[in-house]
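re the bet — no i am not wrong, look at it urself. input seq straight from the record:
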Amino acid sequence: MHQDQHEPVGPTGCTCGCGCGAPDRTHRTTRTDSREVLGALGMLTQAVAATGGWCAALTQLGRYGPGSTTHGALDVRSGRIDLRLDAASITAATIGEGSGEGDAVVHLIDAQQRSAHRLRVGPGEDRLVLEGLLRADGHGGAELPWSTGATTGAAGGPDAGAPDLRTEAGWHDGDHLAQLDALVTDGGLARRAELAASGAVRYRQLPPAMLPDFLEHLSLHALGVGVAALAPGAMQAVQGPVQTVHRQGSRLRAVVDRAILDLDCSRVGECLLTQSSGVHGTTSTVEVYADTGRCELAVTQLGLVPVADHAHWEHLAEVLPAGW
C-alpha cells in the first residue's frame, strides 16, 4: 500500500486498509472507561487491531485477551491480541463505519484527541458489543468483566491462570514492567529526560541503522521475543518468534507470532538498549524512539518465557551494537 510521506505508520493513518480514516464517514464519540473497554474487547469473537504511531505499528487479526491497565499484571500469550492501557490517558472512544458493508471501526483516543488504538469488526454480534459499550450516553450496558491488573484467580476472570507480575515499584527502582509502563504513559518522554541523571537503569545508545539486521538475526535464529507497539496511553504486545522480515526501502515488515510489525526506519530518531530487573533477572530491552521523541517500539522478553530464550536474548544484547 502506498504511504504518503506525511502519513503515520500507526492507527491515525489507517495503513492496514480498514478504511477508518475516510473523511466522509461519520464517527460518534463518547467518553469511556478503559476498564470497561477491555472487558468489551474480551467479548469479541474476532477483530483487526492496530497500535502504533509515526514510525512503528503492530497489527493483528484474532481475539482479544483480557487486557490490563498500567501498574497491574501483564500476561502476554501467543495467538491473541494483548492490549495494555493507561486509564488516565485514554479518555474517549469513537465508533464509525468501516470500508466493508456493516463493518464498525473504533478508535480509543486520549485527551489530545490522538488515536492510541484502532480496531475493526464485521457486522453481527461483535458490532453489537461495541455499539452497546459506546452508546451516546457514554455508559456501557450490562456490567462487563474488566481487569485492574490484579490477579484474581477466579474461574473465567480476567487474570485466571496468569502469573502475578504486578508491581508497585516505579521505573526508578529498575523494575522491568515499570519501565514498560513509563513508555505507555507518555511515550517515555518523562523517563527519557531523567534516564541519564537518575542512574537507576543501565542503558546505552544503539545505532538505528542496525534495526534491519537486528530483526533479520532474530528471524534467522527463530528466537522468541516480546514485541510491543506503543501509542499515547496504549501498548499492544506479542511474544513469539520473528518469522519473516521483508525490506522495502526504509520500510520493514516483520511477522512476529501472528502479528505484523511495520517499521519505517527513516523516522527513527534514537535507539536505546536498557537493562532492568524482570522475572528471570536482568532483562534487556531495545527501545525504538521516533524522531518525535516518543518511544513507539520495544523488543524484549515478556513474562515467564523459556529460560533458554531469555539466556539467548541476553547474550544477543551483550553484543549489540558491536555485532553489527
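see?? The longest strand covers residues 234-248. told u. also Residues 1-5, 13-25, 136-167 have pLDDT under 50 and may be disordered. so pay up
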